[in-house]
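Backbones bend. Our protein:
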Amino acid sequence: MTTWGYVAVVGPGAAGERDRAHARRVGELLALRGAVVVCGGLGGVMEAVCEGARAHGGVTVGLLPGRDRAAGNPFLTVCLPTGLGELRNGLVVGAADAVIAVGGSWGTLSEVALAMRTGKPTVVLAGWDVGADPGDGIFLRASSPEEAVRAVADALGNGPGRPAEGR
């Protein structure tokens, strides 16, 4: 399968409207570039990013904490119940080539930490400031959804119009 990449979009399930709007736009932009969106599959940021991606023909994968497939948000293309609870955060990060965090919660912080620990490009939009050095090329802060997606594209070597092969 040829795709732009697998991008995890993480954020709080109890997100406010600003974070939901940012996530929706990130989903739209990722879908337009051909990325597969990976998330925790529930509400809030997870639902909004899937809604944005699906509105533009994108593929969305949700790794659910429980065993009930019906608990997944209605915008998922693929819904995978893990039965792992919060431990599924490691699967979300592990399945992705890069991570975009929108907003902040304790679960989001754990995903950011796992992404950084494993060397995945990590972009934070309106969320946690983990004190990492933005110059290291792994952790970046973004001020808009467009900037966040552009940073991931640059980190993955997928500038505008250049799809990644074999991800």
Remarks:
- Residues 160-167 have pLDDT under 50 and may be disordered.
- The two ends are 7 Å apart (CA to CA).
- The longest helix spans residues 17-32.
- Helices lie at 17-32, 45-54, 88-94, 106-117, 145-156.
